[in-house]
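re: ur question from yesterday

yeah so i grabbed the chain u mentioned. its 390 aa long if i counted rite. heres the sequnce exactly as i have it in my notes:
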Amino acid sequence: DPDGSAIAVAEAMGHSSASLLGQRIDTASLSLQQHELDPVDPMDPQTYTTQFSDYYPDPLVHLQSQDKLLVPLFCGDNLWGLLQVNGRYDHNRWHHKDIELLQFLSMQLAIALQNATTHQTLQTELVERRQAQLQQQKTAKALQQLNQTLEAKIVERTLALQERESRYRALVDVIPDLMIRIHADGTYLDVVQGQETQGQETQPLKPSQLRSGVNIYAVLPADHAQTRMAYVHKALATKTVQFYEYERVIEGQTLVEEARIVAINACEALVIVRDITERKRTENQLRESEQRFRQAIANAPFPTMIHAEDGEVLQINEVWTEITGYAGSDIPTVKDWAERAYGDRAAAILETIIRPKYSMEVRHDEGELTITTHDGTKRIWHFSSTPLGQ
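ran it thru and got these structure tokens back, copy pasting raw so excuse formatting
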């Protein structure tokens, strides 16, 4: 051992000999110094005799030993131990045959030790390899489970994305507008045409020319394409929605379209084009109808007032102003009219006659009421009202 001691691990002895098996021995007491040794045989310089000093007697007395022979046991290049033979009689002399026998035994023991050490090493390596294989199997199983989990998540997310894409595609398909994903250089990246926009922006081109990969200048007239691209660049720069209306004459027919443009990223925008020709036509018709209605009210031969449910006076005609002397600025609300026309009776008139009008659905006759004009003249008017809707 590193501390200089040794343990007796095996022994062969006579019947009455003392045993050292399992005992720890201080090897210093067994060490032989070169200067203390005397050759046994001049022909064998490796065989010596020596006189034991006063330091050695205890273990030798215990062994009843008169002399001894030590042969080293090597395991490879390392000293593993010593093969020791003790003599109990003074006349015992070690012969060459004894030494050769011990050398042969030490060689056999060294081979056995080497084999045992190799076997132990192989066993250790085998155990370590099995442990490594088990760890590798565990790791492989964990990786397989992780891979299966990841694959399941990928499938789940793929299905979710497909479902989301299907919803978005369904929404896009029902939108009646023309939608174009356009690059900052004017290239159409995607084109989706609704049923109501087939052929839109293609006239007088063929519909097949409105597709991804073409440039806006190949689809629209130069001035119209320049205007569109100006709004595209503005949307990309400001990150705000841009929209504008424009007219195009195709085969003698005027079309009105509205374009809305929103930035998708730094160099792509979405253009939504809607045909608003019918809406503009309807708006113009409503505007013209309202103008005719207002003109009819203004020129009616009877005093006429139009007011909202909140009491705001929207219009009084010229006859009303001529008879009462009150202009629109004098009576901005029904309450103002009642206070001027009915005086102390204004509150009662408002509660019993004017406010109930807002819930009626057909023409209603309020009968005759006395009013006071701007110059203090008393006049009797016959009032009737009719709802005009929301």
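noticed a couple things. Residues 96-174 form the longest helix (79 residues). also The domain at 299-385 is CATH 3.30.450.20 (Beta-Lactamase).
anyway ttyl
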